[in-house]
Amino acid sequence: MSSATCTVVTVRFFGSLREAAGRGDVNLEVDDASISGVRARLAGLLCADGLRALSGQGVRVCVNQTIVRGDVGLRTGDEVAFLPPVTGG
After folding, report:
1. What are the φ/ψ torsions at residue 53 (nearest 5 degrees)?
2. pLDDT one digit per residue (tens) for the chain, 89 residues
3. In this structure, what CATH number is given to the domain that contains residue 27?
Protein backbone atom coordinates (compact mmCIF):
# COMPACT_ATOMS: atom_id res chain seq x y z
CA MET A 1 0.00 0.00 0.00
CA SER A 2 1.20 3.49 -0.72
CA SER A 3 1.06 5.86 2.25
CA ALA A 4 0.10 8.66 -0.17
CA THR A 5 -3.29 7.04 -0.70
CA CYS A 6 -3.69 5.38 2.68
CA THR A 7 -4.54 6.50 6.16
CA VAL A 8 -2.07 5.43 8.85
CA VAL A 9 -3.50 4.76 12.32
CA THR A 10 -2.22 3.22 15.53
CA VAL A 11 -4.34 0.36 16.83
CA ARG A 12 -4.05 -0.58 20.52
CA PHE A 13 -5.40 -3.64 22.31
CA PHE A 14 -6.10 -3.67 26.05
CA GLY A 15 -6.68 -6.32 28.71
CA SER A 16 -7.72 -9.74 27.47
CA LEU A 17 -7.82 -8.41 23.89
CA ARG A 18 -4.09 -7.73 24.06
CA GLU A 19 -3.48 -11.37 24.91
CA ALA A 20 -5.88 -12.61 22.22
CA ALA A 21 -4.31 -10.35 19.59
CA GLY A 22 -0.81 -11.41 20.57
CA ARG A 23 0.40 -7.81 20.68
CA GLY A 24 -0.28 -4.51 22.41
CA ASP A 25 -0.38 -2.28 19.39
CA VAL A 26 0.21 -2.08 15.65
CA ASN A 27 0.49 0.72 13.10
CA LEU A 28 -1.79 0.08 10.13
CA GLU A 29 -2.17 1.57 6.68
CA VAL A 30 -5.81 1.38 5.62
CA ASP A 31 -7.41 2.22 2.28
CA ASP A 32 -10.85 2.45 3.89
CA ALA A 33 -10.30 5.08 6.61
CA SER A 34 -12.94 3.73 8.99
CA ILE A 35 -13.37 1.28 11.85
CA SER A 36 -14.55 -1.35 9.36
CA GLY A 37 -11.41 -0.69 7.30
CA VAL A 38 -9.27 -1.27 10.38
CA ARG A 39 -11.12 -4.50 11.15
CA ALA A 40 -10.62 -5.67 7.56
CA ARG A 41 -6.86 -5.05 7.77
CA LEU A 42 -6.67 -6.80 11.13
CA ALA A 43 -8.28 -9.86 9.53
CA GLY A 44 -5.05 -10.34 7.60
CA LEU A 45 -2.82 -9.88 10.66
CA LEU A 46 -4.46 -11.60 13.62
CA CYS A 47 -5.18 -15.24 14.31
CA ALA A 48 -8.77 -16.51 14.35
CA ASP A 49 -8.95 -16.29 18.17
CA GLY A 50 -7.82 -12.67 18.09
CA LEU A 51 -10.44 -11.75 15.51
CA ARG A 52 -13.16 -13.54 17.47
CA ALA A 53 -12.16 -11.67 20.62
CA LEU A 54 -12.36 -8.28 18.86
CA SER A 55 -15.86 -9.12 17.63
CA GLY A 56 -17.07 -10.29 21.04
CA GLN A 57 -20.06 -8.91 22.86
CA GLY A 58 -19.24 -5.88 24.98
CA VAL A 59 -16.00 -4.94 23.19
CA ARG A 60 -15.76 -1.15 22.93
CA VAL A 61 -13.87 0.86 20.33
CA CYS A 62 -12.30 4.22 21.09
CA VAL A 63 -10.92 6.75 18.63
CA ASN A 64 -8.51 9.21 20.20
CA GLN A 65 -9.66 8.18 23.69
CA THR A 66 -13.37 8.67 22.98
CA ILE A 67 -15.72 5.67 22.86
CA VAL A 68 -17.43 5.53 19.47
CA ARG A 69 -20.36 3.54 18.15
CA GLY A 70 -20.75 2.38 14.61
CA ASP A 71 -18.39 2.90 11.73
CA VAL A 72 -16.68 6.28 12.10
CA GLY A 73 -14.17 7.87 9.75
CA LEU A 74 -10.47 8.04 10.60
CA ARG A 75 -7.56 10.32 9.75
CA THR A 76 -3.83 9.72 9.66
CA GLY A 77 -2.44 9.81 13.18
CA ASP A 78 -5.64 8.65 14.88
CA GLU A 79 -5.47 6.08 17.66
CA VAL A 80 -8.00 3.25 17.56
CA ALA A 81 -8.26 1.27 20.80
CA PHE A 82 -10.15 -1.96 21.40
CA LEU A 83 -11.31 -2.32 25.02
CA PRO A 84 -12.53 -5.61 26.51
CA PRO A 85 -15.92 -5.87 28.20
CA VAL A 86 -16.03 -4.46 31.71
CA THR A 87 -16.64 -7.13 34.34
CA GLY A 88 -16.74 -7.34 38.07
CA GLY A 89 -18.77 -5.69 40.70
Report:
1. -60, -40
2. 544 578 999 999 999 999 999 999 999 999 999 999 999 999 999 999 899 999 989 999 999 999 999 999 999 999 999 999 987 66
3. 3.10.20.30
